[in-house]
Amino acid sequence: MKKLILSAVVALGVMSIQANVLPVSQNSNVTVAIQSEYTEVTADAVPAAVKTALQTAYPGAKLDKAFVNEKKEYKLEISVGDQKATVYSDVNGNWLKI
Hints:
The protein has 2 helices and 5 strands. By secondary structure, the protein is of the alpha+beta class.
């Protein structure tokens, strides 16, 4: 009987410790960043400045796919040899993220 009572006390103690470790806040604010959606475009629709910047930064790079968002930012899926990468550029050919 002593073991049963002791087990119950230990179990309740563990459950109360877990309840204190995981506090729930009812007034929490959640910020969600929504990434701009890109739509696929043809290689001909990519501005010359972006193509020039691509060839300058990655000589011999092949443009596999191109995407644009409403801010006129370009997402370019490229391949150089056997390596593939995704780079981001603005309409003037300035790199946003490499």
